[in-house]
Amino acid sequence: MPEHTFTFPEGFLFGASTAAHQIEGNNVNSDWWVFENREGSGVEEPSGDAADSYHRWPEDMDLLRDLGFTAYRFSVEWARIEPEPGRFSRAALDHYRRMVEGAHARGLEPVVTLHHFTSPRWFSAAGGWTAPDAVQRFTAYAEAVAPILEGRVRYVATINEPNMIALMHTAIRQGGANVDFKLLEPDTALSEGLIAAHHAARDALRGVSSEFRVGWTVANQVYQPEPGAEEVCRAHAWPREDRFLEAARDDDWIGVQSYTRTRVSADGPLPVPDGAEKTLTGWEYHPAALGEAVRHTARVVGPRVPILVTENGIATADDTRRVAYTRGALAGLAAAMSEGADVRGYLHWSALDNYEWGSYRPTFGLIAVDRRTFTRTPKPSARWLGEISRTRALPE
């Protein structure tokens, strides 16, 4: 037996994550479809067929099962379920019910996200999260989805990365996708609207079933102050991250989503250091970010709220770097858990090479997807991580 440094606890979830718009294809009723196909959007290419996972989800789940994973995080698509205000598609709901049941049939714990960046086009056209009836609309949608989840799903995420939604709103107002997110200020009204919608949907789902464990996921930026910049760093981080972590203090769990770090000087956020390795997204290669993100999240939300790592990964064409990055990230996670962080699972981003909000070039997937034939091919990193899932042992 190979030596190992850490054994993850019994019942710890190991798996991978996806998002509906990024893999399903032809999500024509969503606001992102409208945006990405609009002239002057700054988007490199539209999503189109994506990975055709709306039809090929059984194959995707078969691969995850065969690789040795025990969990699969995926989202249901609001724009498909409620294509017009108040009109819920029974066919779409049945589609996602079959996905939930398909996960269980394969021994995969389904972790279901209700909103992963995309909304129905009618919702956004009416004002989106700042509209007077936004909270009621989102809550009604959550209640419509609840019957297909009840008795089948434990972990439900209401909204994915609300802090990034607020930043994206500002970015789009300032001219499209090609802006520096580090320098943007989240829209305050939108942030408060998202928090209100999350709390309302959480309470509604709890009212349906006491078995639901409801939370949301936050994009952790791992803000690191330069010497003497501690106050500037805290002030910079609060509207961009900690506001949303604090809103989760009464939740059943919190999702940590970590990729890299952000260094902050007295003048604000700094660029990636000269000479540092960068990923295909231009982010600094910094696997230690995950352990730091888990520690920070645990400090902010408190010991009562357990953590799921719902996203962590790297955009790279070199799969050996994916293995190295993930090994480093898991080592940091293991250290944080050894120090007392209550972490219940690790879900890698992403299961598939997919549409990364404007381009297919950044490849995050454990499984490659041929854009023409849709053939799925597991990478060595998928087998490596699957073996950790089988044994729960982190190799030396």
TrEMBL record:
InterPro entries with a match to the protein in the record: GH, Glyco_hydro_1
Pfam family, any one: Glyco_hydro_1
Keywords: Glycosidase, Hydrolase
Keyword Repeat: no
SUPFAM superfamilies, alphabetized: (Trans)glycosidases (SSF51445)
Stated family: Belongs to the glycosyl hydrolase 1 family.
Protein name per the record: Family 1 glycosylhydrolase
Organism of this sequence: Actinocorallia libanotica
